[in-house]
Design brief:
The complex is a heterodimer of chains A (about 160) and B (about 575).
Chain A: E1 2-11, H1 16-26, E2 33-38, E3 44-53, H2 55-67, E4 71-76, E5 82-93, H3 99-108, E6 112-116, E7 120-127, H4 129-139, E8 144-149, E9 153-156
Antiparallel strand pairs in A: 1-3, 1-4, 2-3, 5-7, 5-8, 5-9, 6-7
Chain B: E1 2-4, H1 5-15, E2 20-24, H2 30-36, E3 42-45, H3 49-63, E4 67-71, H4 75-78, H5 81-89, E5 94-100, H6 116-120, E6 126-129, H7 133-148, E7 154-160, H8 161-165, E8 167-169, H9 189-201, E9 205-209, H10 212-215, H11 219-229, E10 233-235, E11 250-253, H12 260-268, E12 271-275, H13 281-284, E13 295-300, E14 314-317, H14 320-331, H15 338-341, H16 343-355, H17 370-381, E15 387-390, H18 394-402, E16 411-412, H19 423-433, E17 439-444, H20 455-461, E18 466-471, H21 476-485, H22 501-508, E19 511-515, H23 518-530, E20 535-540
Helix pairs in contact in B: 1-2, 1-7, 3-5, 3-19, 9-14, 11-14, 12-16, 17-18, 17-23
Classes of the chains: A alpha+beta (about 160), B alpha/beta (about 575).
């Protein structure tokens, strides 16, 4: 079962998210992550869904998504040359002895400290999933108080566009 | 011209050619009902909103037009859900208008508020919550367009009270243009040719026809195809009527209670040609034993149906009417000797047909066999352009097996969802469309009680449907499974407490008739068909009678239980 990243353009309308997520839950497809936001055209939203399944299931997902009236276009970016990024905000224990280490890790992973308090540093990291995984592993021993991780966003490289006809 | 939302809705319905709607008023839709009071649209007042949805569905199946139901918010709306799901599973076009509380109250748990859009999302083709009266006309036009085009299906339009009351300038909507919705109607010619070439190579081809053939109004083209190709044809429950029962190439229905010949042909074929069918589990049985030694051509307007359960070797996406015409066009320039090519195969198939036709043991001691009732219904219905509806269970299967059908849209049944309680309201819907035709609901004593209240609707409007109850005093199909697979432990399937259906019919103002002996069956039917009133016929039938043949769930043709 391969993991697939699927980009979907939808009409930016009331209830569209529930139609898409309901399709996944109703038909037993899994969702590892889902992001959605308006595109440069405010009438259109873009969703990125990471899912897992046999080829046959992925083909069904693609067809079923296309069947939804509000779905404009679907692309399985996994089959294209593409870029994927995630973002995570991690609140890490910042005791006296840890602080240097947190800053060093943030620097190595090209992160940013976005909030500081006497007990914690909050670090922002963007990048591929493996990079984020790597960072989390490095800071876990220091004590992660809280984290908020966004779903994946993806875009194909070069001339290939996901755009309405 | 400024009009209220209610008036705009009525204008919009008229613009869609709607002549009949099925509904029941309530709080928030009263402004709309007020506008309906002197509108030029026939409204049938139902007794339960599930009935309205099934009537709209039956009207649609009988006519090919879009059915329309209208109900109030909250419980009115939730009562339609089973009807909507029934239509969705069988791809029946209808638009259900539901009232909704005032826009400013939505989400406040207001009186009779229900999130009907949320509740029906998985069983509608699409749905709308109208948020502004100015969008109403366009929304209605879109709703009908979506319901009827591509793979048809039900659409819900939720109407907050304030949207119905507000007055705005009425603008006649233009053409529907949806950038996100372009169903593929025209079959790709290269794929069609590829399919045709493959058909020419096949040694033992079989046509497996589904409900899509009827939805696409393509039955006449199918018959041309069968006639030209001499390929034996089986249909699903949903497609009964698309090929006349008497057609020499017709194998009967396939699947769990299908004929031996149809199931054998599907098993032995080297090329399965699926037209508008979706490889449902009641057809395929055990998937890993299904279609193991054949290629599959699959034509369907719905790409999701293709290669969903069973992989198609040659997929063709398109409307069946278009694809069948294209296929039929290819016979012209073709020199294949179809007759000679399929002679041996048809001989084999005919042997299967004569070896195990549908049959039942004739009655001794005059006890009524349910199959006999179905046969007599057909015989006495000749010349009356009969439309049959069914409930769900044994009666439905006996109807499917023993009715003689010669036209599409004459057998209306809940195939996908299997909704008990469908038959009576569907019959009323069909009768509303064709007041002069004979409409018979073939029912069981269990199913009929699920929407029996609609007898009052039939009586009120003089929709003279004939309900034939095959009364075996139990939930027959449940009992059959309990007998065969649960060691005769008849857990909660006994219905012998009644009611007395003759008295019940009488109480509703319908005619009640009863037959307890085989010799009475024909007289009861004759009287029922002649009287110009709704009739309930109580046929007290053999309790132990079972539906055979039967391929047990998850089985193969090798497991078939013959009589």
């Amino acid at each position: 079962m391969r993991r697939h990243t699927i980009s979907i353009l939808v009409e930016n309308r009331f209830g569209v998210l529930s139609r898409v997520s309901g399709l996944f839950s109703g038909r037993g497809y899994n969702i590892e992550s889902l992001t959605v936001a308006e595109t440069n055209d405010p009438q259109i939203s873009r969703m990125t869904i990471v899912t897992r399944g046999e080829e046959r299931v992925i083909e069904q997902i693609d067809k079923q998504l296309n069947k939804l009236i509000d779905v404009i276009k679907v692309m399985d970016v996994t089959s294209e040359d593409h870029v994927e990024r995630e973002l995570v905000l991690v609140k890490i224990n910042a005791e006296e002895k840890n602080r240097e280490e947190i800053l060093r890790m943030a620097e190595i992973f090209r992160g940013k400290v976005v909030d500081v308090s006497p007990k914690s540093y909050t670090v922002e990291i963007t990048g591929s999933e493996s990079k984020i995984q790597g960072f989390l592993e490095m800071v876990r021993p220091l004590g992660i108080q809280e984290m908020s991780r966004g779903g994946k966003v993806a875009i194909s490289r070069g001339a290939k566009l996901l755009a309405p006809k | 011209m400024k009009l209220s939302g209610s008036r705009i809705l009525i204008e919009s319905l008229k613009a869609e050619g709607v002549d009949t709607i099925f509904g029941l008023p309530g709080g928030v839709v009263l402004p709309l009902y007020d506008a309906l009071y002197d509108a030029d649209i026939k409204h049938i007042l139902v007794r339960h909103e599930q009935g309205a949805a099934h009537m709209a569905d039956g009207y649609s199946r009988a006519t090919g037009r879009c059915g329309v139901a209208l109900v109030t918010s909250g419980p009115g709306a939730t009562n339609t859900v089973t009807g909507i799901a029934t239509a969705y599973m069988d791809s029946i076009p209808m638009v259900v208008f539901t009232g909704q509380v005032n826009s400013n109250l939505i989400g406040n748990d207001a009186f009779q508020e229900a999130d009907i859009i949320g509740m029906t999302r998985p069983c509608t083709k699409h749905s709308y919550l109208v948020r502004d009266t100015r969008e109403l006309a366009q929304t209605v036009k879109e709703a009908f367009y979506i319901a009827m085009s591509g793979k048809p299906g039900p659409v819900v339009v939720d109407l907050p009270r304030d949207v119905l009351v507000k007055e705005v300038e009425y603008v006649v909507p233009g053409k529907v243009l949806l950038r996100s919705y372009h169903p593929t109607v025209e079959g790709h010619m290269a794929q069609v040719k590829k399919a045709f070439e493959r058909i020419k190579e096949a040694k033992r081809p079989v046509l497996y026809v589904g409900g899509g053939m009827i939805l696409a109004n393509a039955s006449a083209e199918l018959l041309k195809f069968v006639d030209a190709s001499k390929i034996p044809v089986t249909t699903t429950l949903m497609a009964l009527g698309s090929v006349p029962t008497s057609n020499p190439f017709f194998l009967g229905m396939l699947g769990m209670h299908g004929t031996y010949a149809a199931n054998m042909a599907m098993h032995e074929t080297d090329l399965m040609i699926a037209f508008g069918a979706r490889f449902d589990d009641r057809v395929t049985g055990r998937l890993d034993a299904f279609a193991q030694n054949c290629d599959i051509i699959h034509v369907d307007v719905d790409p999701t149906s293709i290669s969903k359960n069973v992989t198609a070797h040659i997929p063709v996406v398109g409307d069946l009417l278009d694809v069948m015409k294209k296929l039929n066009g290819l016979f012209g320039g073709d020199k294949t000797d179809w007759d000679g090519k399929h002679r041996e195969w048809n001989k084999t198939v005919d042997e299967w047909k004569s070896l195990y036709p549908y049959r039942y043991e004739k009655s001794d001691a005059g006890v009524i066999k349910p199959q006999y009732v179905v046969e007599q219904i057909c015989k006495l219905a000749i010349g009356r352009e009969a439309i049959y509806t069914t409930e769900v269970g044994q009666a439905q299967m006996w109807a499917a097996q023993f009715l003689t059908l010669d036209a599409p849209r004459t057998f209306l049944t809940s195939g996908g969802l299997g909704t008990m309680g469908y038959g009576l309201p569907a019959a009323i819907g069909a009768q509303a469309a064709y007041p002069d035709r004979l409409v018979v609901d073939i029912a069981g004593d269990g199913s009929i009680q699920m929407n029996i209240q609609e007898l009052a609707t039939a009586v009120q409007y003089g929709l003279n449907v004939k309900v034939a109850i095959l009364n075996n005093g139990c939930l027959g199909m449940v009992r059959q499974w309990q007998e065969l697979f649960f060691k005769k432990r008849y857990s909660h399937s006994d219905l012998r407490s009644g009611p007395d259906f003759v008295k019940l019919a009488d109480a509703y103002g319908a005619v009640g008739l009863r037959a307890t002996k085989e010799s009475e069956v024909r007289d009861v039917l004759k009287e029922a068909f002649d009287v110009k009133r709704p009739v309930v016929m109580d046929f007290v039938v053999e309790r132990e009678e079972k539906v055979f043949p039967m391929v047990p769930g998850g089985g193969t043709v090798k497991d078939i239980i013959l009589l």
